[in-house]
Every structure is written in C-alpha cells, then in structure tokens.
Design brief:
By secondary structure, the chain is mainly alpha-helical. Helix content is 69%, strand content 4%. The protein is built from 5 helices and 2 strands. Strands 1-2 form a two-stranded antiparallel ribbon. It is elongated and about 65 Å long.
Amino acid sequence: MLVLTYLLVSIISIPLVLSISSHTIKILIAGFAMFRVFEIVIYQANVLLFDEFRAKKAGKEYAIRGYRRIVILLLHNYFEIIFWFATQYIVFNNMFNFVVAESNVSMLGAIYTSFVVMTSFGFANISPLSVLAYSIVIGQAIIGLFMTLLSLARFISLIPSPQTMDDFEK
C-alpha cells in the first residue's frame, strides 16, 4: 500500500508545485523528491546486487515472492522517478530554457521532459542554464540508464533457457 501511496504522491506533487506560490514549500517538496529517488535507486541496487549474496551467506536459499511482482514493482519505481524529476523541472524551471513556446513549464511538458531524459541521453527540448540544472539532467540520465539496464536484466531473467542437444554443452 505504501508503494502505491508514494506513486500517487509523486503524481500529485506535479500540479501541487505548479499551484503553490511558496518557494520554501516547493524546495521542501523537491528535497523529498530527491530523497525518494535516492531511496529507490539504493533499494533497486540492493535487490539486484546484495539480496542473493546475503541469503547465501546466511545459509538460506534465495527466492523472490514472484517474478511478476518484482517486474511490476520495478516498472512502478521507473515511473515514480519520472514523476519526481518532472517535479524538479517545475520547481527549478528558472534554471532551464524550455524550447516550448510557453514562458513557464507545463505539467505535461515537465513529464515529457522527464520521460525523454529518463529513457535516453537526449534532452532536446530543454537547455540547462546552471551547474545544478546540469546535475539534475545528468543525474536523471544516469539513473535512467541504471533502471533501464535493471529492467532488461529482470525481463531477460524471465526468459526460459532452451535445452541443448549438443553433448559437449550439456
């Protein structure tokens, strides 16, 4: 239930930072967003790299609750990160030059920008104007690469291994 709550909060944070005028509250929301992204990345790295090792070290057999569950949670985390970074693009919109005709970033424009940066190293519709802005974009691109590789690894692990007829390979 907490997982869905975090996703809902990440989605709600986008129109919230567009509607509130207090810069302090916007910064607090941006800080929580970065904390949550950090938490997701650490959790996913822990699951990928250390859970199996810890189980074997403790003498237990490593098992997951279910393949569907782990893939759905991974995709959930992927989209939650996209929404949290969209919030960052709105909060720090004065540090970016958006190519769109509007003077301010819109909700869909921020989500689109976040999605493009997360899924590729291209960010043609924005130009970072400061070191912090470049850090946000580069951080999201690296996290996007990590999450994409993690997603591919999870999906590939679900593919059954074919049997071989070659005696040497058995």
